[in-house]
Each structure stands twice: as structure tokens, then as C-alpha cells.
Amino acid sequence: MSSRYALVAALVAVFAFFSVATTTFLTPGNLESILVNNFALLAIVSLGMTLAIAAGGIDLSVGTAIDIASLIFVSAVAAHVAMPLAVLGGLAGGLLVGAFNAGLIAGLRITPFLATLGTLFIGQSVQQLSTSGGQPIYLITGHVPPVFAFIGHGTVLGIPFAMIVVGGCAAIFATILGRSLFGRRVEALGAQPGVAWYSGLRVSRDTAWVYLLGSLVCAIAGILLSCTVRAYVPLSGNAYLLNAIGATFLGTTFSRVGRPNVAGTLLGVLLLNIVANGLLLIGWNFYWQQVGSGVLIFLVLVVSFGGGRARSTRAA
Amino acid sequence: MPDTVQSHIALPVDVAVPRSRAADTARTLVRAGSLLAFVAVFAAFAAAAPGFLSAGNLANVVGQSAVIGVLALGMTLVVVAGGNDVVRGGIDLSVANNLGLCAAVYATGLGAGWGDGAALAATALAGLLVGAVNAVSVVWLGILPLLATLAAMNVCAGLELVLTHNTVVAASSPLLDVLSGEYPAGVPVLGEVLLGVAALLAVVLHLTPAGLRLYAVGGHREAARAAGLPVASYVAASYLGSGLCAAVASVLSVALLSGSTTGSGDMLLAAVVTALLGVVFSRRLVATIPGTLLSALFIGILINGFQLLNISSYWVNGVQGVLILLVVAATSMLRPNAG
Known about the structure:
The complex is a heterodimer. By secondary structure, chain A is mainly α. Helix content of chain A is 74%, strand content 3%. Chain A has a domain of 214 residues. Chain A has a two-stranded antiparallel sheet. In chain A, strands 2-3 form a two-stranded antiparallel sheet. In chain A, helix 2 packs parallel to helix 7. Chain B is mainly alpha-helical. A two-stranded antiparallel sheet of chain B has the order 1-2. In chain B, helix 6 runs antiparallel to helix 7, helix 8 packs across helix 12 and helix 13 crosses helix 14. Chain B is globular and about 60 Å long. The two termini of chain B are 27 Å apart.
């Protein structure tokens, strides 16, 4: 069996299993809830992670970009700033985090893991200091503009708004990574940074764009999140970090050459979401769910890395 | 006059440039600089915070650094054996949740009426088992360490919840009384354990042939293999060591908090930072046991000094973040051709 299809096979298997094992899994309501409530945000965040990992880096500060965007957006809405301006403010806040990362990684040549780890720590302090230790900012019902309900739960032609955002971002990222010149350079950076440098690619500039784009999608996720929960909850973005990394690497098994790719990442996110949802429905409590999804990720990794000595050394 | 441009191009791609005298000097400067920073922070707190320099307070700092310190020492083993490329080299993301799981095993074991011996054995077994799973998946299944240990981390977090139902499990035992006490008066036993573990690991890693071989395996795996070292066993041993350290740290944490608590996963990043920050305290800018110990104490001193000066503890993370960035920026500038 080609390891390339391990991810798809796992997806089909869990889907079939939960459809048979429960009466509630295969209902339109549940499937929509998986997509809108679980899939959308993680998918958006994972797109940025996919780009960073494709470029040979990693972004541990996705949570910081989500949180800062949410903080600025919600504070602005609470202060009766016009909605478009509040959204712009949120996006700018997220981009600021990306620009900080870009400066550290492309400018000071700090390795992405450590640079974004530093950003994550600094972001935690900034949030704690600006919310007196982590007090959430709730939007009082009267203050919430009607557009919130639309962004959080609305539909266009029957398609949930969040899914439209996911689709748009995914299409853009798939084009960038798979079909653009910039994407080719990013792949070169990730596969052979030394060769990319010697070939005269402007490594710093491309690296900077990778982290800026990543923080931009995180900011979008942060704003969507704020609209859904109608609040800014400090340090809540970190919850997406490990799942985004997991989904991206699960997705690499979908590529013939073991590289991060948008389609694979989306499948990875879907797998994580379906397993979490399905285990809940068959009556496993939250605790066993975590064990179950951990074991499942592990199995997919084992299958796709199976006999993968050669692959792992080639990647190194 | 030789063509300097050509000598650049002739360099093999992605192979370290031979050390030059200038780079050596710069390394010495960084090391001296970070030691100087340590001393400067120490002196600043000594001057500004009354009571900071008292023996009791300093002993407390060591005691409070014990849990993170032991955890970071285990991480150090993995970093040494795997090489310091954080994505593809050695890293163990499961340490913090392994600690949580071990603490849960220990506390529930004691709660079920087991003696200290049986509970300790079960705890050590749990830690080693997690280490063994990591070792198998990294060494024999060829999964990237970052991913393999990420999956193990999730499983540990889940198993901990299954054991504790996300509540605090109080625990007490004669051993815990000893560990949370002070012997001789004024010296926290936890701190002594940290120093003891560090001393033991330092001897193994820096004074025995096995330790030198571990560095060889991490430094250049192919060369180590060509020299006939059993590379797989060394890497596997480092994960087992890390798992055992997590088990030891879990007992310390149960002693410190009088039980197993939730949220131990939050310690992961602190442990990673401590192990990586320690690099600047070594002459060749590699992970070492004394370096990790110093960096654990350094962070302990920062937290303690901030408390004494009544500075909000919310600053601690930020200062830690800035420190990492400073340290890493300094070290990466020494690496020629970082592009």
C-alpha cells in the first residue's frame, strides 16, 4: 500500500466507522457543526503553519497572532469603533506579530523555532499585562453589531460564512504554494536552504513574506473566533498550535514527496476534527478522546513513515 | 591574489565552516557576556531587593527551580543525542505531559494505599514507558522527533486526565514529607535533589566515554555510525533518560504541591527554553548539563527577584522571551553563512 494514501484511508475508515457506530454522526446537523465549529478555525490557522513548514521553518506564535488580533478587534468594537476599522485594526495587530517574527528570522537570522518561541513568550506577557492577568473582555449584548451574528453563524446561499472564508483562504494558499513563483522559492527554501541561498534567491525577503502571510490568516481566525464567542479571552489562541502542527505534518504524508501541502493539511485537520467529534458521540469522555486521537495520529505517522528510514534521512 | 569569491562558492553546501580564530573569540565573548549578564542580574537584585542575598532565599530559589530544572536536564540529554536542530534534531515535547502522567500515577498509587516503594516503581515505569515509546518511534520507525513526541504528548495528556478526571489528587507519604522539608534546616530538599541529579548526569555526560559518544552521535550521526558507534542505542537511551527525568520531576512536583495537579503541560515551553538557553553557558555553544542547570537557576532568580521587588509576575514570560531572542541572536551571528 502506498503510504501516500494512508491519510485518505484513515479519513474514510474513521468516517465509515463513526457512521455505523453512532446514529448521530452522519446527520447534516452534526457534519455542519464539525465544519463550522471545529474545522474552520483550525484549518485557517493550519494554512499559515503549512506555509511556514514548507519554507523549512515553523511558527509557534500562531496563538499570539490570533490573540492580539482578537484583543484589538474586540477592544475596538467595545469602544464603538466602526466595524470595518475594527477588522482592519485586528488584521494589523496580527500582522504586527508576523512582522516581529519576520524581523527576527529574516533580519537577525534566528532559527524560526526559537524566534517564534520568543514571540510567544513576549505575547503572553503583553496579554497578561494588558488584561490585568488574563481577564477576558466580554462584549455586552447591546454593543454587539448585528454583523457579528452573520460572521459567526450566518450563511450565504446556504453555505456558512466561516466555510467561505476557509475556502477563500485555502484557495489562495494553495495557489501561492502550488502554482506561484513565490511558492516555488518557498519550496526551495524548505528543501535546500543552502542551495537556495547560493542560487541567488532573496531568501530574507521570501522568508519575511512567509511569516507575514501566516500571521495574516491567524488574525483572520482571531477575528472569526471573537465573533463566535463575542469576547476576547486572553491566551486562548495557543490551543490551536499543536493541532496545527500535527495537521500539517499529517498532511505531508499526502504529498508524493512528503512535503507540506494545502490539500493534505486540510485532510489532516478534518481527520483530527472527525475523530474528536466521533469519539465524543460514541460516548468516550473528553479524557479518553485525547488518548484516542493521540494514538490515531501516531498510527497515521507510523504507517506513513513506515520503513521510512530512507525518507527521514533524506529529509534531514 | 587569490579569488575570494571562488573560495566561497567552492564551500560544500550546508557544511559547517572550519572554526576561525575570530569566531573563537566571538564565542568566548558570548559566553563571557552571558555569564556577565547572569552576574549583573544577580548583583542588581542583590542591591535592589533586601533579603535577596540571604542564604535562605537563595536556597529557596534552588528549591523552586527543581521541577523545571530536572525536566530540562532530561530534555538536554535528548538535545545532545539528537543534535540541536529543533525541528529535525533531538527534542522531546512529551516531557511536561509525561510529568503530569507520572504525577498522576504516583498520587493515585499512594491514594490507593500503595507504599512509597510500589508507587515510586510504578511512576518510574510510567516515565520510562513513555520514553520507550518515543525511542521506538524516533529510532526504529523513523518518525521526526518533533512529531513522534507530539503524539506521545497528546496520549500522556489524555491518560493523565483518565487517571485524575481533571482534578487535583492530594497525596502524602513519608517520602513526600522528606522531599518537601528542609534538611539541614533552611535548605530545601528539593534543591538538593536538583543538584544531585545534575551532578549525576554531568558525570555521565561529561566524564565518561559514553557521554562523549552521545555528543558524537548528536554532532555528526553519519560520522558516529562510520566510527562504529551503535547510534540507535544511544539516541534511544537519551529518550529513556528523558522519560526517567520526567518521572523524577513528577515526584518533586507532587512534593512541592502536595499532590498531582492539572495543567502540567504548561511547563513544556519553560523546559524547552531552559534547555536551549543553557547553550550560551558552554564554551562550544552546545547543550551541557552545567549550562542547563545555570539557566534553570537564572530563570529561578529572575522570578524570585521580581517577586521580591514587587514587579508583576506577568513580566516574567516577556523577559524570558527577550532573553531567548538575545541569546539566540548572539549565537546565530557567530554561525557563518546562516542563510
